[in-house]
Amino acid sequence: MLNSPTHELYDLVVIGGGINGCGIARDAAGRGLKVLLAEQGDLAQGTSSASTKLIHGGLRYLEYYEFRLVRAALSEREILLNNAPHIIWPMRFVLPNNKAIRPAWLVRLGLFLYDHIGGRKQLAPTKTLKLHQHAALSAPLKDHFEIAFEYSDCWVDDARLVVLNALDAAQRGATIRVHSACTGAQRQNGIWQITLHNQKTKQNETIQARILVNATGPWIDHLLHQAQLLATQQHNVRLVRGSHIVVPKLYAHDRAYFFQNTDGRIMFAIPYEQAFTLLGTTDVDHQTSLDHVQITEEETQYLCDSASLYFKQPIQRTSVVWSYAGVRPLYDDGANQAQAATREYVLRVDDEQGQAPLLNVFGGKITTYRRLAEDALSKLTAWLPTATPSWTANAPLPGGEFAFAEQAQLVAQLQNDYPFVDQAWAQSLMRRYGKRAWDLLGDAKSLADLGQPFGATLTEREVDFLRKTEWARDAESILWRRSKLGLQMTAEQRAAFQAWLE
């Protein structure tokens, strides 16, 4: 294997292609810095595509007195909704009152704070519901629930949020490398010498950087080991697994449910990809390999049992059509229970006599990634004298250059411009690509112009678009991260698509 050095000197090399790494790369590139991001697998392949897919303040964190975290997250919710209205949209959540777990007054107090501490401007406020007056909302639930609270948060396509941050970073000059693992990092004469291994070509390359950012999430200690710094760093990461299951749609309306479990945990039931319901999450300390993180049988049963406490229709393990699990790299604050561990992020800088700083990113949640990136650049200001000020608060992500209220109008316009695209398909394209849907469809005059169909509206043209503009390399990256069309396809269609790609 060749080891080819490059004489290019980057201001910033970011290791890790999850939401924090891509957010930092985007912010830095937009400040005029020379940036490279390296990801050992695919963008969002790890934790960042395995969330509950919410942009939210975290109502349950109020119970742990994390008021600062909730306030910051609610403020970010407003910003992100403005900047990515194609992949983030408002959702109403119904919280049935379970007086055996928490009294109604305590829930009301929590929701009052939730409505008022984060500068809510766009989303509807909380209201109390008498469930017998709301047949659609009460129909799926067991009959003994009388009162519920309905509040607002936002849904997000988490993997696409990551990809769009990487895309925007690239459009602003950053270099994005996928399937490129960091296999070594050393300081020499005040400069980082970083070895990257291309997983596809098996070639090694050495690059230079003034600053190294460790945004590898659960793999944070692995990179510290590569940089021969593990012994000098205090171990402050707690690996907590969150798992989810997907079942056929449990109800017809567009609300999500927020359930309180008897063990003190909470659970969401969320409308998912038109025909399904997403149930999650668990909070379990993760102590096995990070290579193939999967839901356990115990977690699957826990989610089925927890949902069955609320829904009339029992949730059976045989109903599960898909599941996923991710490991959250939480900052270890010494909490006894995994669900109580803080979701605050911590940024730590290690340097060598004022040179070649290493920034380690601990913890965080997807909602606060943009603020984390801003704070990361602020911590590095002393080493980046040419960097321009922060800018991302009012900068739409690619395709999101419109107001959320305009989405229906844009769907209609897309159908008008491409009459062979029906409403459901147009809406699906708009929710993946926003205004970039026109770039994808281009000069197509008919369905035939989109090339080979693979099922579930996936066409050859969309595949080419993803490969050329979004670093998609294989079937999994297209069917389960850049889109969720794998859920809509049959096993035969998925196999045929994979064979076609190969």
Largest sheet: 10 strands, mixed
- N- to C-terminal separation? 25 Å
The CATH superfamily name of the largest domain is FAD/NAD(P)-binding domain
The count of DSSP E runs of length 2 or more, i.e. the number of strands, is 20
Helix content: 25-40%
* CATH fold label of the largest domain: FAD/NAD(P)-binding domain
Topology, pairings included?
Elements: E1 3-15, H1 19-30, E2 35-38, E3 54-55, H2 67-83, E4 88-96, H3 104-116, E5 127-130, H4 135-138, E6 147-156, H5 158-171, E7 175-177, E8 180-188, E9 191-198, E10 204-214, H6 220-226, E11 237-248, E12 256-260, E13 266-272, E14 276-280, E15 284-285, H7 297-308, E16 322-331, E17 345-352, E18 355-363, H8 369-379, H9 407-417, H10 423-433, H11 437-441, E19 453-455, E20 458-459, H12 460-469, H13 475-482, H14 491-501
Parallel strand pairs: 1-2, 1-10, 2-7, 4-12, 10-18
Antiparallel strand pairs: 3-6, 4-6, 5-6, 8-9, 9-10, 11-14, 11-15, 11-16, 12-13, 13-14, 17-18, 19-20
Family: Belongs to the FAD-dependent glycerol-3-phosphate dehydrogenase family.
Keywords: FAD, Flavoprotein, Oxidoreductase
Protein name: Glycerol-3-phosphate dehydrogenase
Structure description:
α9 crosses α10 (423-433). The chain has helices at residues 19-30, 67-83, 104-116, 135-138, 158-171, 220-226, 297-308, 369-379, 407-417, 423-433, 437-441, 460-469, 475-482, 491-501, and strands spanning 3-15, 35-38, 54-55, 88-96, 127-130, 147-156, 175-177, 180-188, 191-198, 204-214, 237-248, 256-260, 266-272, 276-280, 284-285, 322-331, 345-352, 355-363, 453-455, 458-459. It has three domains: 3-47 and 160-236 and 343-394, FAD/NAD(P)-binding domain (3-Layer(bba) Sandwich); 88-155 and 239-331, D-Amino Acid Oxidase, subunit A, domain 2 (D-Amino Acid Oxidase, Chain A, domain 2), CATH 3.30.9.10; 404-501, Helicase, Ruva Protein, domain 3. Strands 3, 4, 5, 6, 11, 12, 13, 14, 15 and 16 form a ten-stranded mixed beta sheet that branches. Strands 1, 2, 7, 8, 9, 10, 17 and 18 form an eight-stranded mixed beta sheet that branches. The chain is of the alpha+beta class.
